[in-house]
Amino acid sequence: MRTLFNTLLVCTPLFICSCAKQAQQEQLQQAPLQASASQSAVMAAATWETVIDGNSFNSYSAFEAAWNYLYPWGSDHNGTARMYGSPTDHNHIYLSNGVLTEKATRINWDEGNSSADPYLPIRYHSGAVHAKTHVLVNDQFPNWEVKCDFQAPSVKGSWPAFWLTGVNSWPPESDIMEFKGDANNWQNTFRTPSDVSSTITWVSSPGNWHTYRVWITKVNDTDVDIHYYIDGNWKAVHRGNFVGKPFYVIINLQMEGSSGSPGPSADTYLHARNVYIGRTRNY
User: Fold this and answer.
1) Where are the domains of the chain?
2) Where is the GH16 domain (predicted)?
3) Is 49 among the catalytic positions?
4) CATH class of residue range 49-281
């Protein structure tokens, strides 16, 4: 009896631990199915609005109705590329057959340093665009979908991104597609500069077409859940206190910085198509 009791004492914690791990694994396995079912139910039951449809890259008039050239704050950011583009300058931001292309070209003259931290020397001219509509999760618009197809460069020194960042402050930030000089896609959620969730996925041939998507849903008065997908496959859910905080939607081809250096000497291209932004409206 004592031997059996001792055996039970030893085995019981292992059994409980095993059950807990199994339950956790089952929850993770069920999460994408639950998310998909929940999203379908929301879209069926609520009033769904398309904010930007898949045609905004079909013509310059459609593009300029939905998108602005450059970053929201101007031409510079945290890499070595300075963004150029306007309704009369399509050297680095241009459309063809429903595809938006951003082209990074290395320059051979001194153009000074970026005006943005960490103030790197400018070595490229490239392109960035941002949506005129902000993503804002609140009681009126509790669910959002943001997605786009990309052919993304992954060569050392290339830093393409499809991301959301705070209008009034940084953070918040959500990176839907971000490559940093290799085939790993980073899907990050910044709650503070040091409180970050990252899901890193190796993507086979990033230069082929792949779809990157988030579903953002309000879960309580302060928090949202951001579900990340690649090619329709659920990758992760991150939570952040982003209710009531508007986001810019940005597509850009930055260079070097976090993607390493030296960057490529040849032109580098980011191609985008079928961008879509939608939301539910409660009132």
Assistant:
1) 1-45, 49-281
2) 46-283
3) no
4) mainly beta
